[in-house]
Amino acid sequence: MRVGVPTEIKAEEYRVALTPVGVRELTSRGHQVIVQSGAGLASSITDDDYRAVGGEIVPTPAEIFSAAALIVKVKEPQLEELAMLRSDHTLFTFLHLAAHPQQADLLLESGATAIAYETVQLPSGSLPLLAPMSEIAGRMATQAGAHYLERPRGGRGVLIGGVSGVPPARVTVIGAGNAGTHAAMIAAGMGAEVTILDTNVDRLRHLDELHRGRIVTVRSSIYSIDEFVPNADVVIGAVLIAGARAPVVVTAGHIEQMRAGTVVVDISIDQGGCIETSHETTHADPVYVVSDVIHYAVGNIPGAVPNTATYALSNATLPYTVALADGFASGVEAYPELIHGVNVASGKITNRAVAESLGYSHHDPATVMGISG
User: Fold this and answer.
1) Measured between alpha carbons, how far is residue 247 from residues 179, 242, 253, 273 in Å?
2) Is 254 a known active-site residue?
3) Model confidence over 38-59: pLDDT tens digits?
4) Residue 89 catalytic?
5) What domains are defined for the chain?
6) Of the residues 82, 88, 180, 332, which has the maximum number of CB atoms within 10 A of its CB?
7) Reading across the β-sheet that carries 32-36, which strands appear in turn?
8) Which of 96, 182, 340, 363 is catalytic?
């Protein structure tokens, strides 16, 4: 199969979907890999690095989409990329369609098969392809919160870890998944007073045992959010329902109750955001202020550290990319969780959470794809 790797064109997206390790793995199995010139440069991967392991370099995205059957990317396809998709394409990337209805409509029109990293789900409920990026986003969310608490950045002028005789910042994390857990861990490591909220008490119990009380765990409820959000110096929203739009758990009223110069970081923004006053921002212009509260809502947080993020993402996605290149039916047999990743196929929405979020009818992916059993 011909596998295409275009340069990412979303604003300030510096990652690339395949490393030379991935290209070597694919070419060793007889597949052809076509990489757009310069696709890996921001991740410190040169065209020659790809050539050395059998990759073919082409200058334009049009050549990638024209020649390849399997397109692997990092972020959701942009409008000019969607215009190049055909019904015989399989697209493997982050999609976040619940937050991008226009992309969903255009994917349906294309007839292509679109498989989303973020909805590939194991029987345990874990999301193996989202996990490494959630880990990075969570860690960076705390860094961002600490940075924008500084007075020159508009914050209250609070050192997140405090100092002898002066209490540390209060950090409230909503959501104890991968992103929230790592945000809380980094905040605790920086010396903050950390509280994490989640509806899953078993998850909270695990964190409590792991951190021995260093991170305070609280079952999430309207009452607990009312209690902890207004008193926090940093609020990190990390709520996720796989494939669906993130539920709003922090309202504009909560923001109005927060002190001037406090910071909210909405990691969930790529799924629509869990903070009512948040809207997507970029690395070049990452923050804005509502009710004197600083909002950080960058939609591709890990894109700021592409050298780390590219390799972390490729480590997770490569086995699935190879399986898809070998053939969809055999790929699903080897990795049954891939079927949950199919969001769109043959002009139909094939993920239930995505369909419900967008108001479409849901179609069984195995039936649409002609996969038996």
Assistant:
1) 16, 11, 16, 7
2) no
3) 999 999 999 999 999 999 999 9
4) no
5) 2-120+306-369 (3.40.50.720), 131-304 (3.40.50.720)
6) 180
7) 56-58, 32-36, 2-5, 70-72, 90-93, 113-116, 342-345, 348-349
8) 96
pLDDT digits (tens, 9 = 90+) for 300-319: 999 999 999 999 999 999 99
Q: Is 238 within 8 Å of 266 (Cβ atoms)?
A: no
Contact yes or no for 123/152 (Cβ under 8 A): no
Residues linked to residue 35 through DSSP beta bridges, in sequence order = 5, 57
Which position among 100, 198, 270, 340 bears the catalytic label?
270
Q: Rounded to whole angstroms, what are the CA distances from 274 to 99, 116, 170, 277, 370?
A: 12, 21, 20, 9, 36
pLDDT of residue 213: 84
Global pTM value: 0.93
Buried b (16+ CB within 10 A) or exposed e, 215-230: bbbbebeeeebeebbb
Confidence (pLDDT) at 338? 95
Listed as ranges, residues in the chain with pLDDT below 50 are: none
Q: What is the pLDDT of residue 11?
A: 87
pLDDT score, position 336 = 94
